[in-house]
Amino acid sequence: MGRQAAVLIACFDPQSRQTLVQWLGEHSLEPIPFATVGELRELLKQRSVVLVLCEAQLSDGNFRDVLEAVARRGRRIPVVVTSPKSETQEYLAAMQAGAFDFLPYPIQLRDLEWVVGNALHRSMAAAS
Known about the structure:
- This protein is an alpha/beta fold.
- It is built from five helices and seven strands; from the N terminus they run βαβαβββαβαβα.
- Helix 1 links the parallel strand 1 and strand 2.
């Protein structure tokens, strides 16, 4: 049996992280945690990734750095930004920087299903 599709996640809110890990696992996706942009870069070199879910702020950077790291890999991997702030300005900043979408905390299952489903569809279409 082959590897599950990898989804990189940086989510520091325990409840939202549990929601993500459980939901992704139930949908035959492999959640792989990362905490820094440096760690993300290494994971992108090692694994074939179909989606990145990341915090707006990481200890060594932010979502813009994540988007840049993903873009350097040469594949169009959707990046969904998560944040405890549901402010319009944060959403717009993420979208203008090239994020696929934005999910505020607490992450709602119906929103997660919609966003991840659309992102995976885009990821698979770009791979073919």
